[in-house]
Amino acid sequence: MQRFLFAVVLVATLPVCASAGVSISVGQPGFYGHIDIGTLAPPPVLSPQPIVIQPVPVGVAPQPIYLYVPPGHAKHWHKHCHRYQACGQPVYFVQERWYNDVYVPHYRTRDNHRDKDRGEGHGRGYKGHGRGHDKD
Questions:
Q1: Is residue 27 in a domain?
Q2: What does the pLDDT average to over 30-41?
Q3: What's this model's pTM, rounded to 2 decimal places?
């Protein structure tokens, strides 16, 4: 019965979610989710041991992931892990201060470098728009 009610609620909310057209990316207010630390040192976390809600199958050892979530989600992870598709995964919750002070600036710098590598941005070769002339 609970699965049926969950399915009904899920189907009822799909049109609302699909029509919203909201996209939030790393570093913007309201972003929560998976953090790819890449070459950064392991961040300060809320708990020294990763949290796992669902048992992991024998012989399977998934790597822990880092997540940035609202405090209430970390505190009641069993209620929220499905939103992040991480119920059967070991999870470290990164601290908000580290996320804002270290990760976001690093991510933005990395993202800017990617744009330049793809030829985006206003570096060499940028011709501008709406000026009526192009310089080579």
A1: yes
A2: 89
A3: 0.62
